[in-house]
Amino acid sequence: MVTRPRRRYAPFVEPRLEFATSADGARIGWMSSGSGPALVHLPGIPFSNAEAEWRIPVLRQAFTSLGERVRLIQYDGRGTGRSDRDVSDLSLAAYLGDLDAVVAAAEIDRCILLGYYASAAHAIAWAARHPERVRGLILFGAAPSHGDTMQAAATQALIGLIERDWDTFVESVTHAWLGWPIGDEGRLAADAFRGSTSPAVARASLEAAGALDVTANAAGVACPVLILHRADARVIPIGASEALAGTMPDARLEILPGSSAGLFFEAGNLVADRIAEFVAHPSGSVAGRDAKGGVVVRPMGGSPRLSPREIEVLRLLAGGETNGQIAARLSLSINTVERHVVNVYRKIDARGRAEATAWALRNGVG
Question: Which residues lie closer than 8 Å to 303 by C-beta, 6 or more apart?
Fold first, then answer.
């Protein structure tokens, strides 16, 4: 991937807020910045507050960087930000209606959708419903369903704070769950989240997200899909993204460095470059599956590029199989497997099987 030289950004000018009207009459606040192919950034659930996010330096830099190469469309989910707060319908159909309204108001013919966590499910469902309108999907923290995540004891304990102590809930989500640091930017993020919605809407939207399952929709998405996952992510396990990639005909899973649950918080320039590259050339950026039908993984952030066969060998190596077992499984000679192993060790700077296995686990190859 070719990265563009960085330049000094112009003085901060916040994009102008506009409003679209959803099918049920809800007003949805949206913003547009930059020019070029359209990238529609779906809102976070239960928090979305595009105006406040633009005032957080690390996010503003990422959005500005994207706006140099794409037309970035952002909007607040119903019940949050500058969209109507007094809403009762938080169904999938309602959220898809909001996306319909924003795309129409922005006069977009075809676009790339960027969804993360629960809004990734909305992106998948909208792409399945409107295949002629979607050039590709970019998904982060995504899974076919978030039911297991929402039912986890730690998540339920966190949700239990919503009505009892809203401030503690927001601070916990900001720092412990999403990984924002204690400091100015973490304070700005917490303030943005705190003012983005009400406790009642937060609980209702999280419960609705936990009930979603878009596995059937995912299987019908034919456009190129880029699934991003952090190497050391804790909120959503790598297996969830692998499972999602396995259900989509033209999906690619790529590993970002770090552990943050925020898309742009770590290696923000790298992430913005990768997203812009995909928006420009979605078909050229997604290699799909290898010859055996496995999901192709390309580590990011300066990590070495392993061939699909080398990834397959490393996956089996990390699973404890011997060179002979790998040769039999892949119908290769032992000499060929040994050559692949040597190449893998050289590319990832591993001195043996233990270090190669540790590298595979860190980078989601397993």
Answer: 255, 257, 348, 363
Question: What are the residues whose beta carbons fall under 8 Å from the beta carbon of 228, sequence distance 6 or more?
Answer: 138, 139, 140, 254, 256, 263, 271, 274
**Residue 301: what are its φ and ψ, rounded to 5°?**
80, 40
From residue 251, give the alpha-carbon distance in Å to each of 118, 154, 193. Answer: 18, 30, 31
Render 20-75 in DSSP notation, one character per residue: EE-TTS-EEEEEEES-SSEEEEPPPSS---HHHHTTSHHHHHHHHHHHTTSEEEEE
Tokens of 269: 């320039």
Quick one: three-class SS letters along 169-186? HHHHHHHHHCCCCCCHHH
Q: End-to-end CA distance of the chain: give it in Å, rounded.
A: 24
pLDDT tens for the 366 residues of the chain, in order = 444 444 444 455 679 999 999 999 999 999 999 999 999 999 998 899 999 999 999 999 999 999 999 999 999 999 999 999 999 999 999 999 999 999 999 999 999 999 999 999 999 999 999 999 999 999 998 887 776 666 677 777 888 889 899 999 999 888 888 878 888 888 999 999 999 999 999 999 998 888 888 889 999 998 999 999 887 777 788 888 888 888 898 998 888 877 888 899 888 888 999 999 999 999 865 444 444 445 555 555 545 567 778 888 988 988 889 999 999 999 889 888 988 888 888 888 888 888 888 888 776 676
